[in-house]
Amino acid sequence: VKRIGQSDADKKKLRFWTKDEFDSFISEIDEKKDVMYHAIFQTLFWTGMRIGELLALNIGDLDFDRKIIHITKTYYRAEHKDIITEPKTKQSIRDISIPNFLCKELQEYVAKLYKLGDTDRIFPVVQEAVQHKMKRVIGKTKVKMIRLHDLRHPYVKHKLKNLSDYWPDRLSAKDKPARPVFLLSFQVLFMLSQSLNP
Question: Where do runs of H (alpha helix) occur along the chain?
């Protein structure tokens, strides 16, 4: 007998990709011919930022010298207008460290943008376009279907018990508890991969 509420619980189960699954997905996007979407999915997976946060980024949010992305706003489209607002919570305003390879990719991508203004979005697309692209690429691979939002939940979230020890050293102790546990830095992924492949 099926328990009441079981279907709802199943719907709430997180679906996420392992790094191998993400590698299979991203390999289907040509880094040279499809530069923007390659950079979009790399950034979503390795930073854990929300799609609205990513689509709101401008050149001033990228600190290539310190390898940091500043998250201060979010983007959405409503009534045929681009809307950029502050995040819903103060905890959402944060700095995210990025690995060297992502920093390099973003730097090269931005350098190719023609007449980019200080407040221009570096990814001038809407969420629906990113979702559509993701579904099309998944269709070309053998990876399981997940939602765009699920890219925020890297598989290491389910491997580590105490994530507070793994935040970058530059974060103060006061900042650590406020960070959602699924916003894992690339350092965590690297540490786990080292432990699983000694």
Answer: 6-12, 19-26, 35-47, 51-55, 100-111, 127-140, 186-196
